Amino acid sequence: MGLKFTKMHGLGNDFMVIDAIHQTVDLTPQQVKGWADRHFGIGFDQLLLVEATETPNVDFRYRIFNADGSEVQQCGNGARCFAKFVYDKGLTDKTEITVETASGVIVLYVEDNGWIRVNMGAPNFRPQSLPMESSVEKAVYELQVDGEVFEVGAVSMGNPHAVLRVTDISRAPVEKVGPLLEAHRAFPERVNVGFAERVDDTHIKLRVYERGAAETLACGTGACAAMVVYRNWGEVADEVTVSLPGGDLKVAWNGDRNAPVWMTGPAETVFEGEVEGV
């Protein structure tokens, strides 16, 4: 029998979503890499698994695999697609959906307009949370790459992010500097790299070089990371529009390190399919 899947996207950050509750799924990194190929496979940035959970008061388990086959802890755009998938497929009739991830429990809300609002949890600025090789927490870290020094803010949003301030997003050195910072020795498990231009205190423009996926059209956790780093620097308000190549997300955080970050945005279904011979 074939393996049924749904192709979805959140602002162009695209996903292969699989119901692993009603199907037996046994993935290998080679399978994921093959399906992710945009010429010979289905093509996607990440693969999302919807699984059952035995955790009390939790509705589902949410697993994420990058296009290179590696499993990661969190994906914000994927979380919105996850919520739309389980709601549209009738796996739940709840509009408040509690989901277990590798980095903790998150809560997803299906809004009346079809957008999904996600409680992303509180940001974690401690270097060991990323992890990052620094003995002390800093608002700004200096990282040397190819003889240049780059100043970044670092935060975990369930996955690791380094946020780099740029003055012109269209000229940001994403292709050159992105992979170098992603693999910088300061981040032993690699890092997602955000190139963020502050437009004003309610608007940030952002491009993200994602760990294991290169530059994507949108990154939900990256949008949250950019907002909270700028908020931690005291340069933006509590609610910010983050403009990515694929579209806009709304991100809210009041600056309290124990308070959750809220992300709101769309999720879309593209097509249904079935992989034969699995």
Topology (elements, then pairings):
Layout: E1 3-10, E2 13-19, H1 29-36, E3 46-51, E4 60-66, E5 71-72, H2 76-88, E6 96-101, E7 104-110, E8 116-119, E9 141-145, E10 148-156, E11 160-165, H3 174-182, E12 192-200, E13 203-210, E14 214-216, H4 220-232, E15 239-244, E16 247-252, E17 262-265, E18 268-275
Parallel strand pairs: 2-3, 4-6, 11-12, 13-15
Antiparallel strand pairs: 1-2, 1-18, 3-4, 4-5, 6-7, 7-8, 8-17, 9-10, 10-11, 12-13, 13-14, 15-16, 16-17
Would you give an account of this structure?
The structure is a single chain. This protein has 278 residues and is of the alpha+beta class. The chain is built from four helices and 18 strands. It has helices spanning 29-36, 76-88, 174-182, 220-232; strands spanning 3-10, 13-19, 46-51, 60-66, 71-72, 96-101, 104-110, 116-119, 141-145, 148-156, 160-165, 192-200, 203-210, 214-216, 239-244, 247-252, 262-265, 268-275. It has an 18-stranded mixed β-sheet that branches. The mean pLDDT is 96.
**Overall spatial form:** globular
- Strand-and-helix sequence, N→C? EEHEEEHEEEEEEHEEEHEEEE
- Sheet with the most strands, sense and barrel status: 18 strands, mixed
Q: Helical percent range? A: 10-25%
Give the uncertain stretches in residue-range form: none
Structural category:
alpha+beta
End-to-end distance? 7 Å
Mean pLDDT: 96
Counting DSSP H or I runs of 4 or more residues, the number of helices is 4
The amount of beta strand, in percent, is: 35-45%
Number of strands: 18
Radius of gyration computed on alpha carbons: 18 Å
